[in-house]
Amino acid sequence: MEKRPLLEVKNLKTHFHTERGQITAVDGITFHLNEGEIVGVVGESGCGKSVMSQSIMRLYDEKYTAKYEGEILFQGENLLNLSKAMMQKIRGNDLSMIFQDPLSSLNPVYTIGDQIRESLMIHQNLNKREAQQKAIEMLRLTGIPAPEKRINEYPHQLSGGMQQRVMIAIALSCQPKLLIADEPTTALDVTIQAQILDLIAELNAQLGMGVIFITHDLGVVAEICTRVMVMYLGQIVEETDTDCLFSEPLHPYTRGLIKSIPQLEGERLQKLYTIDGTVPSLQKVPHGCRFASRCPYADELCKEQAPELEAYSPTQKVRCWHYKEILKKEAVHESSNE
Amino acid sequence: MLSYLFKRIYSLIPVLFVVSVAIFLIVHITPGDPAAIILGMEATEEQIASLNEEMGLNEPIVKQYLLWVGGVLQGDFGQSYFMKEPVLDSILSHLGPTISLAILAEIVALIIAIPIGIFAAYRRGSFTDHALMVATLLGMAVPSFLLGLLLMLSFGVYLQWLPIAGYKPLTEGLWTHLRYLILPALSLGAIQAALVARMTRSSMLEVLNKNYVKTARSKGVKEHKVITKHALRNAFLPILTVIGQSFGTLVTGAVVVETIFNLPGLGQLIINSIERRDFSVIQGVVLFVTLIYVFINLIVDLLYGVIDPRVRLERK
Ligand SMILES: Nc1ncnc2c1ncn2[C@@H]1O[C@H](COP(=O)(O)OP(=O)(O)O)[C@@H](O)[C@H]1O
Ligand code: SF4
Ligand SMILES: [Mg+2]
């Protein structure tokens, strides 16, 4: 019997109503995530990673702000068809999220104990005492020393790393099946980053939850993700195993991202490669390939027609007209270098 | 919390000093010889001179100031020459109507304003939001005396539900007391309600965009709890500031409404005293009202600390 994926997103689109008309920040995203799997989502800032993750949680106001299209099948059920009340039951319980900046994501006027207990009391029918016990347990699980004391402190009294641990404790308190982590380490310094990454990987193994890990740091992807999606201007441009991502990147954008990873050469940091130009505005999405204005291989076809996401192998997909030629050319280029 | 409290109180001392000097100077520099006005047209030069002597107005001004402040510090605001009674007694006998009116007006304002502000923020950009905001603009634009007269005409004269004017102290029963205050409180409270509603709306709008509100939603917190528990408490600091200011305004600025509704409050006391150049009462009332103002601000500061732990607790 085939195993059903935990999450299947089909052709998801998120439109925002803005003063200058409607924009489509996520434009037809399709992917799946198996139980217990960690999938990475990478892309420069402004590519729609956060919008995608908050759309999966249906966090945008659907009356005034946003409109969703497509399907978000979570354990086979389309979240977009659920009532508000049903959605509230799932959020924080089966489906949790942590954000980039832990300090601003925690409510400054309540103790961290209050904030962890809240989810437990909503979803697990615990009374205050039981919730307190469980909250202390969660703090211990996330590696916070002296949790009995810390639990009565306010967010501003903790360090950034501790704050993110608290966020993780909140998110995982009800043992969700899926955790969406939106750049959870970006705001932290390097050593703390590594600790939080380890923590997430460890809890993933221990609790068996699926994780969508959003980052713009490919180094992080290499460390904990099994699969990766590369996003550009609201679309997936490449989807692949983590190994193939580094050994055989197909999309010119992916290649650019990999080339821009800082590399230690001897003692000195090599000069950084950067992809020219910036992500175009959502107000004027190119009608050809969205990456054309920045792509060294762009030709007339690219500027006129948008490529589809195409399967290159059973595990690798790419959205580019010329990836095969580029692959050949680069291979020749590399062998002539040796 | 205690050290925070002491810091706040300590910082008030220079403020009070400057204010007392200012009040004293304004009263004493204003043209017009108090003794001449008190004694009237017929008074002789000698009578005026001896009254000035009696009231201590011939002493050097610094000495006069020190005597006054020294008295105030011991609870003695001086003697009203005109009313032949201690200034503090006059103030206390006029304090009741003003305070009752201010409290009632503030309650009216808050009951209307805070829900309106929250609702408008929650429905930002909707028709209801626009309608409510136009209403608050109107509330701010209509002067309180006009509103007072309209209310008096409709509810007092035409419908005869409430008394037109006058005042009954609390000792005659709560309802009797309130009946006389409802119309003046509405006329005074409308502007404050408009101000508080607008502040509530803008503060809520800001807070509703904060990440912790997103976190609350992502935890599955119900929408009404997101608003009342997570957003409102954070939005409340600037609202509290406006409430403090509005209460101060209500205590000090009720002169017109007190006059229209013939309420024997501090406003009337000060108007009458200015006419009579009863300077000890004038400076006494102004200082007293300043003290109330300062006291309200102190309470507001303390409430800040209660609401927001970042104010109360030092970063470790
Ligand atoms: N509430 C919103 N209304 C309108 N546009 C939005 C909103 N939220 C995000 N966007 C736009 O969507 C695009 C993608 O943003 P985001 O998902 O935050 O990027 P990323 O997380 O990849 O850095 C950006 O151009 C951003 O301006
Ligand atoms: S389709 Fe053309 S422009 Fe787009 S990535 Fe491929 S080569 Fe570059
Ligand atoms: Mg983002």
Task: Report what the structure shows.
The complex is a heterodimer of chains A (338) and B (316). With 338 residues, chain A is of the alpha/beta class. Chain A has 13 helices and 14 strands. Chain A has helices at 49-56, 84-90, 102-105, 112-123, 128-141, 147-150, 160-172, 190-207, 218-224, 242-247, 252-259, 300-304, 323-337, and strands spanning 7-18, 21-33, 38-42, 66-74, 77-78, 95-98, 178-182, 210-214, 227-232, 235-241, 264-265, 268-269, 310-313, 316-318. Chain A has an 8-stranded mixed beta sheet with strand order 6-7-8-3-9-10-14-13, with helices on both faces. In chain A, strands 2-1-4-5 form a 4-stranded antiparallel beta sheet. A two-stranded antiparallel ribbon of chain A has the order 11-12. In chain A, strand 11 (264-265) and strand 12 form a beta hairpin. In chain A, helix 4 packs across helix 5 (128-141). By secondary structure, chain B is mainly alpha-helical. Helix content of chain B is 78%, strand content 1%. Chain B contains 14 helices and 2 strands; from the N terminus they run ααααββαααααααααα. Chain B has a two-stranded antiparallel sheet. In chain B, a hairpin with a 4-residue loop joins strand 1 (79-80) and strand 2. The structure holds adenosine-5'-diphosphate, iron/sulfur cluster and magnesium ion.
